[in-house]
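Contributing: when you submit paired examples, paste them exactly as shown. First protein:
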Amino acid sequence: MGVGATAAVVVAALVQAAGDDPVGAALGLSVPAAYRDLIEDAGNTCPEISPNLLAALLTQESGFNPKAKSPAGAQGIAQFMPSTWESHGIDANGDGARDVWDPEDAIPSSAKYLCTIAEDVKDVPGDKRNNMLAAYNAGSGAVRKYGGIPPYKETQNYVKTISALADQPPGSTNTATTTQAATAVNAARSMLGTPYSWGGGNANGPSKGICCSPNGSSGTTITGFDCSGLTLYAYAKAGIPLPRTAAQQYAASEPVKPGQQRPGDLVFYGTSAANIHHVGIYVGNGWILDAPRPGTEVRYSPMDTMPDLYGIARPKPTNNKEI
């Protein structure tokens, strides 16, 4: 957890205004069964948070992966920065250790920290939910200084993104669910370090590629992934079949408005829908997972890794066919 671009925990769902009645305890978002009770209990730590808030938080940042570690150094299922964990982590399960890698400690600690942030900005004018979200991104001091959401593009987009998810009823779209998106992100993460192979990768995993790329690189002797092979594999693990090429995958997905992307969404690069040449998987805080080019490996890249970002889209489970 932190401020600005290194904010470690992205909150995402139904934060109730301070002083109002608390949000109902029902958990509407899909979560792994192993964490459901933890989330439901911790989601009632204070009136300003809810089980849905915690479920969305964990989906956004780690995909419910207790071993996740971000490029910025955030750790565990709730993606605490070490300094924030030192200040706000608790031994929630009473085993004598505060362990950022243990969901039984990290999930309740996330709830406690949310409550602390809510208290910090409770007297700031404006929408209390937006102020709370902005404080998570930019820090409570910035929200107090500017009397609300700070004039930072990142923070403004951050609040819009989270609000869009918060206001979306569960099951209201025909796109990938947050659970499916989390599964895809985790599948892609498991392939970090896998070699790039032109034409490589399928629903079963890395494979030898084909010849040849526009610059003459051959994948015939390399077992690995190209960009769309990686995304195809990741979503196959989530039960969503994608077509093979990046352009086809864009056509088989639902466009997402700028600033409303969530982890698991596909990020496309090109000059037009017909000329998309690269795709990666958004993982949060301006980063993607991708297989960039011959001679590289599956890795984390910033969203601006290429200058021709075309759009962001969310796979559709029911309509993905070879086209």
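Second protein:
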Amino acid sequence: MKAKQSLGSRLAEGVSGGLMRVFLIVIGLFWLVPTIGLLLSSLRSPENIAASGWWKVFTEPSQITFDSYRKLLENDDITSSLLNTVWITVPATLLVVIIGSLAGYAFAWMEFPGRDWWFLGVVGLLVVPVQVSLIPIAELFGNIGIFGSVLGVVLFHVGFGLPFAVFLLRNFFAEIPRELLEAARLDGAGELRLFFRVVMPLGGPAIAALGIFQFLWVWNDLLVALIFSDSGSQPITVALQTQVRQFGNNIDVLAPGAFISMVIPLAVFFAFQRQFVSGVMAGAVK
């Protein structure tokens, strides 16, 4: 005889089935509404934008035009700032991933004096707010001549990205079975070979998750770029903010620029979505 289920069990089974999937789909579509609205606005003329909302496109598809993107490509400030964003984001991401991986392996499996105290110092840096260091580091960069340059913005992001990177990867690398590393050492593998041949492949999901976090953080940054960049090194976030301040009605440039600024990190996230989920869930189930 089948045991009678409680009301809570029946409700749990109900929400975990098709009803929950429909609910999650609706929530996902709801969160996509601003992105869809920005895309459709970027495909309309300034006159149509001023006259009606972006949803008017569904009843009048003839409003769609690519003139705004053509004007965007003719705007030197926007195109150069988009290139600056790439020059800032890619090195800042790669340096954090490479240095963080090496340091995380060292803290996890290499013996050296004061290792635990040094790691505690790295963990302590996680609680340092970015705002308290803006003025001191700005003065330091000014003294050494890199304030207002792409290099200065990259170094700032690397410095503040490394504590989290080292903390994340050290904890992940520490979960690798010791027997596996000892077997590789018995086969004659040195530390570098052990790192690149054993640790890096096993730590791929965590490294990919870290890379995505760092890429999104740097790409979407405004505060640091607003302070440490000048007119020749400003990224897309600062360029769009400047356009709003100088030309408040320049919507034909702002809409496509904002959409491009948003769609690139979205494309990166969806391209590495599987690795990101694996990295976030790493360690949850053993």
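If you have annotations for the second protein, write them as plain sentences, like these:
The two ends are 36 Å apart (CA to CA).
The mean pLDDT is 82.
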